[in-house]
Amino acid sequence: AQHGMVSAADLDAAVAAAAAEGQARVSQLESSLIAREQAIQQLQSQLAAAQAEASDARTAAVAAVRSSVPRPDTAQLAELDSLRKQVEGLQAQLSGKEHANITLQAQLRGASAATSGVALGVGALDKQHATQVEQLQAVIANKEAQLAAALAEVKDLKAGGARGSGERSAEAAAALSDAVRQRDE
Questions:
Q1: 164: left (phi over 0), alpha (psi -120 to 50) or beta
Q2: In whole angstroms, how far apart are CA 180 and each of 137, 158, 176?
Q3: CA–CA separation, 157 vs 176, rounded Å?
Q4: Which of 68, 87, 104, 134 is the most exposed place for a label (fewest CB within 10 A)?
């Protein structure tokens, strides 16, 4: 060593130290690898447990939702069908009433036109009746004038007292009677 030379013992010792250090490093790496594998396995177990818990929770939630939704029984379905038929019947009745209403409106328009025609006819009859009344009033006035003339003639005959007055009085009486009859008619 003093002359700058390494003895075989020193080399063996150095190799042994390096080998021991390498073995220690390998052992450390193996331990670290084992720890990582254990951690991975633990995480995998936790993941599987979490997945199983999530699946169970999902199954429970679906079951709860299904149980909370009431299922219609046969009686309810029959009642719904009956209500549907009633609605359809009411709709049919409404359609029929609308058709009847249209028919009634047409009849009312026809009746209104007929009423207008009747009113025109009544107006014409009123005019005709008024004309007839005026004619009858003229006839009555004429007959009353004839009666007045006959009465005046009878009065004159009574006042005159001339010979042959009986015959004239009979004629006057007949004329008076005829005038009264015509007036009454």
A1: left
A2: 15, 19, 6
A3: 13
A4: 68
Scored b (16 or more CB within 10 A) or e, 57-95 reads eeeeeeeeeeeeeeeeeeeeeeeeeeeeeeeeeeeeeee
Euclidean distance between CA atoms 38 and 126, whole angstroms: 124
The amino acid that residue 4 corresponds to is G
* Tokens encoding 112: 């209104």
Show the tokens assigned to 131. 């004309």
The encoded tokens of residue 56 equal 């169970």
Which one, of 123, 127, 180, lies nearest residue 150 by Cα? 180
Residue that has been written with the tokens 């009747």 in this structure: 118
Structure tokens at 13: 């010792």
Q: Is the pLDDT of residue 1 over 50?
A: no
Distance CA 104, CA 98 (A): 10
Residue 119 structure tokens:
């009113």
Query: Per-residue pLDDT tens for 119-140?
Result: 777 778 778 878 888 888 888 8
CA distance 40 to 42: 5
CA 52 to chain centroid: 56
